[in-house]
Amino acid sequence: MQGVIKAYDPSTGAGLVMCDTDFNDYELAGNALAGSIFRMLRQGQRVIFELDDAGRATKLSLGSEVDMKTPGH
Fold first, then answer.
1. Residue range 40-69: average pLDDT?
2. How far apart are the C-alpha atoms of 61 and 67, rounded to whole Å?
3. 45 domain residue, yes or no
């Protein structure tokens, strides 16, 4: 899945990502940044993510324009 960071609190690690396809907001899992190049996130940042068993966003990564199917790429 792909989306945009809607909110992120670096002190707690809490945040929301809005999915591009269903426009739902997904809470970030506590381990969302584990194994990622990200150390923190900023509002509006585009990410690729998966959902864990509890329906929270996890395994955040940065995709290329091709990965994200950005128009014109």
1. 84
2. 11
3. yes
The answer to whether residues 42 and 17 touch, using CB atoms and an 8 Å cutoff, is: no
Say if CB 57 and CB 26 are below 8 A apart: yes
**Dihedral of alpha carbons 71, 20, 35, 38, sign:** positive
For the chain, how many structural domains are there in total?
1
Banded model confidence at residue 73, pLDDT cuts 50, 70, 90: very low
pLDDT given for residue 67 in this prediction: 55
- Look at residue 24 and tell me if it is in a domain: yes
In a domain, 26, yes or no: yes
Q: Supply the range of the domain harboring residue 55.
A: 2-61
Question: Tokens at residue 64, please?
Answer: 């290329």
- pLDDT at 49 exceeding the cut of 60: yes
